[in-house]
Design brief:
Helices cover about 65% and strands about 10% of the residues. Helix 2 packs across helix 5 and helix 3 crosses helix 4. About 20% of the residues are buried. With about 120 residues, it is mainly alpha-helical.
Amino acid sequence: MVARLTVALKPVGISIDMWTLLGILKEEPGQSMTSLADSLSLNLPTVTKLMDRMVSDNLAYRKPHHSDRRRVLIFPTERGLNLFHEADQIAASLELAMEKNIGDLSPIKEGLENLSRDG
């Protein structure tokens, strides 16, 4: 699934990590870099590099925290949200195709969710 999704998202111009990050920012805009790194289970330098690319691609932007200027908050751009929705539709189509070939994916999804919560 990951390999297929990686290939399918290539024409959209975003990676799975970018899609995931945009999904987090869509639900809770104004996240700190540390909270994003924790949510993605990635180290801070990796998320910083990913965010640098997303900012340069106009998918997200940084804004100083209103009371602590040392902290930076991340927000999605309109372009980022549009690409998120496009990628989300691609992922849903792939999921439907896999369900046709494999059957019910619920046990696999539950197992992955448990792993991500525990890991």
